[in-house]
Specification:
Elements: H1 6-29, H2 46-53, H3 55-88, H4 95-107, H5 110-123, H6 130-150, H7 159-174, H8 177-182, H9 190-199, H10 204-234
Length: 242
């Protein structure tokens, strides 16, 4: 086994610190008793209690989860169908135009995409809210699902469908720009809510809700890893008898 040099170890440590130190600081300060985010006032869970009582924040989180789940499901279905068409139908008429439309959101700035969708919804006189954000996020994330599935259709693995769904779910849950263009009254997502709160000053409650999200994601990753290991162990071929 090749040993890591001192330079590689230092580089690895700095890289991990750059990635995870801000997250660690956020988690620690979510337990800060002080109302001032930059001043440590001792350990407390008061901001988690405040979060439970904040109906607007909880409603925004529920909206984000619902939109992410629905748009990810739609993007997975549509993206897989698009990948099948591109991988299995050969060079059909209109393939170039179809590919361009599928992959356009990859290179299009989100501001342009959001503004275009806003103009579309205004033109058709659609009430902006939950459904318009879902449609917008489906449009945004479908191309990512198409790329993931199309790249491995030759030796198709059903786990790629799960990967495409999770990628679309994460992109939808995190989106701020397009959602801000296509939202309406009563459909505030969590990123929009956090952004509006941060503009008036960072509250420790924001650290609390971010920590909850980090914890949920970490638990989901651990559970998924354990299930994958169990599935691999169950499908492993038995060793021949001696």
């Amino acid at each position: 086994m090749r040993r890591l040099s001192a330079f590689n170890l230092v580089s690895l440590a700095l890289g991990l610190a750059f990635l995870y130190a801000p997250i660690a600081i956020l988690v620690v300060y979510s337990f800060n008793a002080s109302r001032l985010v930059t001043v440590w006032g001792g350990w407390s869970t008061r901001w988690y209690l405040a979060l439970i009582e904040d109906r607007d924040m909880l409603e925004a989180a529920a909206n984000s989860l619902g939109i992410a789940a629905l748009s990810a499901a739609l993007a997975t279905v549509l993206g897989t169908l698009a990948a099948l068409a591109l991988a299995r139908l050969g060079r059909f008429r209109g393939r170039l135009a179809f590919s361009a439309m599928v992959y356009a959101p990859l290179v299009m700035p989100e501001v342009i995409t959001g503004l275009s969708l806003l103009l579309l919804f205004v033109a058709v006189d659609a009430d902006r809210g939950f459904l318009t954000i879902t449609a917008s996020h489906t449009t945004l994330t479908m191309c990512f699902v198409t790329i993931v599935v199309q790249s491995r259709l030759a030796g198709f693995d059903t786990s790629l469908e799960e990967a495409g769904f999770l990628l679309a779910f994460s992109l939808s849950l995190d989106d701020l720009v397009i959602a801000s263009f296509t939202t309406g009254p009563g459909a505030t997502t969590l990123p929009i809510r956090i952004y509006s709160e941060v503009r008036l000053g960072v509250k420790p409650e924001i650290n609390a809700v971010c920590t909850v999200i980090i914890a949920v994601v970490a638990v989901a990753i651990v559970v998924a890893s354990l299930l994958a290991k169990r599935r691999d162990a169950g499908g492993a071929p038995a060793l021949p008898a001696a």
